[in-house]
Amino acid sequence: MQSLFDFQKNGIYRDRVETFLIDRHSQSISMSQPHYHPYYELFYIVDGSCKMFVEHRLFNCNPGDLIILPEGMLHRSQYEKDVRVDRVTFSFTQEFAYSLDQSISHDFLDKNLPLNKIHFEGSNRVEVEGLFEKLLVCFNSFAMESENSELNSGVNVERTSGLEKIQIKVLILQIFMAVIRLAVICDSSGREQLIDEVTDKIQSSAKFIFENYSSDISLKQAASIAGMSETYFSRKFHEITGYSFKEYLTNVRIQHAIKMLQACSCSVTQIATTCGFNDGNYFGDAFRKKTGLSPRAFRKNCRHFG
To answer: 83 falls in which pLDDT band (50, 70, 90)?
Structure first.
């Protein structure tokens, strides 16, 4: 895919989709690194099951489940060993979504496609899987005809024929409406339910870390929020989220540092302090380990690609 940085190298800032991209394949290998990307993703399970930890929420994903991932959401999927999961991923940029129809306002995605899990069953499931399949056929058909056989950054709808363009846009709008319609029908019972009390406590602790990343958060403090000993908390936190406590805290801080490096002119030292890194050298080392670049080099590359 077209990338700002190589995923195998950095594992934090994934590929760039220029318009939209849809793919269906089986997977059984968990993500070795959490990542986020600058576009929306609809993650749909056709068969099998997995877990996805997004920001500070844990989702159990089963057939008929769709996870809505807004842009910039740090996430990591976990698969049971040797259990293959058949899934569809549909990615699209904000700009592309707003270009589909003039009636779509610029707060459409924020209002209608927030981070959430939706479950399709019965005729609703048949409908949404049929729409994904039709869009996959259109996408693959265009790929065969395109000079760019990889189409790694997605289909450029403006380069398709008039009929193809209409068909693609209609299918995508139908997918949006199917998702939004079911989300409206579902009350709170349609949202992700906590597995048990331990999971509830771990998610509460993860939420505290996520919201207070700039503070000096210790393992002892995080464990006390969950009402657990440090040893038990460390084990359960890793078991449930796929992260160690330190890894999760560092990833959240670096995610915010990346956003600041892209968006503001603050010095690297100021950004490090704002994001909770008291040691500038440690910040530089941790940032380089996650992105493959120093904070200054990352900022320079962002300007180059921007």
So the answer is: confident
Confidence tier at 189 by pLDDT (50, 70, 90): very low
Residue range 39-60, pLDDT digits in tens: 899 999 999 999 888 888 888 8
Residues 245 and 230 sit within 8 Å (Cβ to Cβ): no
| Residue-by-residue DSSP string for the chain | ---SS-HHHHSSB----SSEEEEEEEE----SS-BB-SSEEEEEEEES-EEEEETTEEEEE-TTEEEEE-TT--EEEEE-TT--EEEEEEEE-HHHHHHS-TT--TTHHHHHS-SEEEE--HHHHHHHHHHHHHHHHHHHHHHHHSS-SS-TT-B-GGGS-HHHHHHHHHHHHHHHHHHHHHHHH--GGGSPPP--HHHHHHHHHHHHHHHSTTS---HHHHHHHHT--HHHHHHHHHHHHSS-HHHHHHHHHHHHHHHHHHH----HHHHHHHTT-S-HHHHHHHHHHHHSS-HHHHHHHHHHH-
The span from the CA of 53 to the CA of 73, in Å, is 10
List Cβ neighbours of 219 (8 Å cut-off, separation of 6 or more). Answer: 230, 233, 234, 245, 246
Q: Give CA angle at 139 (136, 144), nearest 5°.
A: 120
pTM of the model: 0.76
Token representation of residue 273: 């302090």
Q: Taking the CB of residue 190, how many other CB atoms lie within 10 A of it? A: 15
Residues 84-125 have pLDDT tens digits of 899 999 999 988 898 888 878 878 888 889 998 999 999 999
Residue that is written with structure tokens 């002892």 in the block:
220
Distance CA 233, CA 198 (A): 10
pLDDT in tens, 226-245: 999 999 999 999 988 888 99
